[in-house]
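Researcher: Next entry: Phosphatase PAP2 family protein (Tsukamurella strandjordii).
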Amino acid sequence: MLVRADQALPREPRGERPDRRWGRREWTWVVVVMVGFVLAVEAAALAYGLRGPVRLLGDDFVGRPVAGEVKVAGLALAVMCMPQRFRWPFLGTIAGVEVLFNLQRYLAGVHLHFGNGVMWALAGLAIYALWKLTGREQEAVLKAVGIAAILIVTSRVAGVWLELTMQALPFVADWFVEVADRALGSPSWVMGRFVNEHQWYLWLITKVYTYLPVGAAVVAYFQLRRSSTEGFPRHHIVRSFILIGAIGPIVYFLFPVVGPAYAFGNQVPGAAWLDVWPNVVPSSLEPISAYYSQLAPRNCMPSLHTAWATAILLHALRGPRLLKAFGVFWFVCTISATLGIGAHYGIDLVAGFIFALTLETALVRPEDGWHRRRLVTIAGGASAFAAILLATRYLSVPMAQSGPVAAMLLLGAAAAMAYAFYRVAYPEASETRLGAVVDGAVPAVLPDPAQAPRLRA
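Model: Predicted structure:
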């Protein structure tokens, strides 16, 4: 059987590369960079008279902590990922510290708070692992503590970051986004009216929106439940969540937006430019950057809730059928909530979706290395994301007046990015389908590569 001259010979699978895992040096650099970033945010917070992440973390240890769903999720992940013999002593330490702190508060006649025990138990376990443990057990304990610590620290940094957007960015670009969003049919107004007429759905999606980290914890359970004995997988949802949360907020300073319920509704009483959301879509075609009350964070573009929900969906689709169904449910509810409660415009969601796929492309299948398809997809996603921001800012009126053209371009970019990600994440499936479609004359079993040159026609 002949092989066409332009038919590529079989290549070695990309996955057969040496398994290069991060060592102590790489993790040391991660810690150094993270500490430096926290200190930089602390300095910025002090410049604006705000309480920075260092002071907030100090409260978590010795002050009045905030429990929160992120701290609960971090605690659950730490317990799940650490070796079994440490779990009950760890939980017992948390309970003991909580009793001591709250007994003091009770005797002083102040409100009870919970969360100090988690911080002291994590710190104590990390010190014990560095001092007493060795080998794989030490690695497992430190990774378990590290996951919880990173989630808690990033949540504190994120809270301060949002306060910084309020103080440093008095002017917002909501007019531009609202006008451009008309190309998509003003979906926030449509969904806002729908959920107001269906209160049960509003209640459901609000809960999902509020407890987004719980959805990630469910997926993480399926991915990491055997990590204490079998080691961590090369790619898991915690990595995705942290990277999205680390990069996404930077865009808030480049494109400050508060959301339709704030700029065009009554989320902050008396602050709206027009109190029309979700009943009446504004008609002005003269967008401007305008001052908005500094009581609302500028955290809409891109929609990180959409990005995180996309990450939950992508990781869930790699799991069992029940987890797949859960991922789809969480994704649909989150998308509905971002629009229905007026937190985001439709373009925010498209940008958040492309943003998540771009970062997931960089993270998925690390064993394949930085091959050409991955790099091209990342570059394409970054370009599409930047194009959406620029078009929204400078072409909002033409977008609103373009009929279906702008909508097709926006949704087409999202679809193209989804397909490109699929080809990176599932190379075997995509190449198999492509081979089946391109040429039915390709042999089912290719000849030995060494013999191929003399067999060519």
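Model: Note for the record: Residues 135-168 form the longest helix (34 residues).
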